[in-house]
């Protein structure tokens, strides 16, 4: 596999593809993306777009290009990421490809891991030592007192030990949030409730959320049921990290509260299917139908969706998540928005990523087929580029 940058000349061009420049605009057929260094300098039809003869050309005839994808709910908490400073570079690069870049992800938001470890991982990528995606992280999530799973349970989940701060009250929540924000995290994650512990109060959630917002950072909540969502929304969180299929349909009160507070949802539909895999088929179907119905209701309310799978807790292939989102009624433009423009807007990146447009970073996903025709094509990636560099190239023959 060749991971070298294609940029040996100043200009490079992806030539011949169908280009979905954004979810809302008509695609360009037989198009060209011209890049200079890390940036996109022009996008247009091949017949109309002039580009320098010295430009290095990557043949993309028959392929389809979108902006690089964002997964807004991942975790670098599996044991494979432990001691991130010491993992040999080739191994670390392969792990990042396996989990993310081979599926077109150029940006991820990690919402629960060891901050110091994830920061080291990110440093190795951002220094150029290892090819990988842009990473944001909340670091350790805040949990209710006694809410942290035992080391034994974490071990069975394949997760490294996570000394998360346990929160008793508003003062404790504020203090824990400030500690994390001072350490440099990009957002705050709260677990609204946990087995065998008292759920966080609205006041505690608000105390942490206020600190995050003062620092200009988003707040994510892990809810276990609809009541958790309502408390969290009233407490000022920004992103609901899961659907909650075990607590029945989302009613009008909940949907209205979510909408009024302008929250976004990462549906994580595959997660519940995965956790229910040992249950009877009829039970599995019931849960799947419920989570799909919750997402459908949220869409009908005009709610914002950010693609998110709880990656690290589930299998890496996102195919099933795309299929379930489509089953909930999401069109290709809506799914593409959840992967590109919606997270860019939510995380303040619209001037940098999320579209295939002049002046933006050349973060691009190149697919074998057009996902507008069949959504499953979103999981079949030929090249992934970050800032003009190929950070994933599918093995020859695939
Ligand atoms: Zn998660």
Key attributes of the depicted protein:
398 residues; alpha/beta; TIM Barrel; eight-stranded mixed sheet; five-stranded parallel sheet; 31% helix; disordered N terminus
Describe this structure in words.
This protein has 398 residues and is of the alpha/beta class. It folds into two domains: 11-67 and 354-393, Urease, subunit C, domain 1 (Roll), CATH 2.30.40.10; 69-346, TIM Barrel (Alpha-Beta Barrel). Helices cover 31% and strands 21% of the residues. It has helices at 89-99, 115-126, 151-157, 170-182, 202-214, 226-234, 252-260, 269-275, 281-300, 319-327, 332-339, 341-346; strands at residues 11-19, 28-36, 39-45, 56-59, 64-67, 69-74, 105-110, 134-137, 143-144, 166-167, 188-191, 219-222, 239-240, 264-265, 304-305, 364-367, 381-386, 389-393. Strand 12 (219-222), helix 6 and strand 13 form a beta-alpha-beta unit. Helix 4 (170-182) packs parallel to helix 5. The radius of gyration is 21 Å and the shape is globular. Residues 73, 75, 111-112, 241, 310, 313 line the site of zinc ion.
| Overall pLDDT confidence | 95
Low-confidence stretches: 1-7
Q: Tell how many strands the DSSP assignment holds.
A: 18
- Largest sheet data: 8 strands, mixed
Say which CATH homologous superfamily of the largest domain is assigned: Metal-dependent hydrolases
Structural class: alpha/beta
Number of domains: 2
Secondary-structure element pattern, one letter each: EEEEEEHEHEEHEHEHEHEHEHHEHHHEEE
| CATH fold description of the largest domain | TIM Barrel
Strand content: 15-25%
Ligands bound, unique: zinc ion
Radius of gyration, in Å, reads 21 Å
């Amino acid at each position: 596999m060749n991971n070298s940058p294609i940029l040996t000349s100043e200009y490079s061009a992806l030539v011949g593809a169908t280009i979905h420049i954004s979810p809302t605009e008509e695609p360009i057929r037989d198009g060209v993306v011209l890049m200079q260094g890390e940036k996109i300098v022009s996008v247009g039809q091949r017949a109309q777009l002039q580009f320098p003869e010295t430009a290095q050309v990557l043949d993309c005839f028959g392929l389809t290009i979108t902006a690089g994808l964002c997964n807004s709910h991942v975790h670098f908490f599996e044991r494979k990421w432990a001691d991130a400073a010491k993992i040999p570079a080739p191994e670390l690069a392969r792990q990042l490809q396996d989990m993310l870049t081979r599926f077109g992800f150029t940006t991820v938001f990690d919402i629960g891991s060891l901050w110091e470890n994830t920061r080291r991982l990110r440093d190795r990528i951002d220094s150029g030592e290892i090819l990988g995606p842009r990473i944001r992280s909340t670091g350790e999530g805040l949990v209710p007192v006694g809410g942290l799973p035992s080391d034994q349970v974490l071990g069975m989940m394949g997760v490294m030990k996570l000394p998360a701060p346990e929160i008793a009250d508003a003062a404790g929540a504020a203090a824990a949030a400030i500690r994390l924000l001072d350490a440099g995290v990009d957002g705050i994650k709260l677990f609204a409730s946990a087995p065998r512990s008292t759920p966080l109060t609205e006041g505690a959630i608000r105390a942490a959320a206020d600190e995050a917002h003062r620092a200009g950072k988003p707040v994510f909540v892990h809810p276990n049921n609809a009541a958790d969502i309502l408390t969290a929304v009233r407490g000022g969180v920004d992103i609901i990290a899961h659907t909650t299929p075990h607590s029945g349909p989302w009613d009008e009160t909940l949907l209205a509260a979510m909408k009024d507070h302008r929250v976004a949802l990462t549906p994580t539909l595959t997660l519940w299917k995965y956790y229910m895999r040992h249950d009877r088929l009829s039970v599995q179907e019931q849960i799947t139908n419920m989570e799909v119905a919750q997402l459908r209701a949220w869409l009908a309310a005009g709610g914002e969706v950010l693609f998110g799978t709880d990656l690290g807790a589930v299998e890496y292939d996102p195919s099933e998540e795309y299929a379930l989102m489509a089953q909930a009624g999401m069109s290709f433009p809506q799914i593409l928005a959840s992967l590109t423009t919606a997270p860019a807007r939510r995380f303040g990146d619209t001037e940098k990523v999320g579209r295939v447009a002049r002046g933006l970073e050349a973060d691009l996903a190149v697919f074998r087929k057009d996902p507008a025709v069949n959504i499953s094509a979103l999981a079949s990636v030929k090249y992934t580029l970050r800032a003009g560099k190929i950070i994933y190239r599918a093995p020859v023959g695939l």
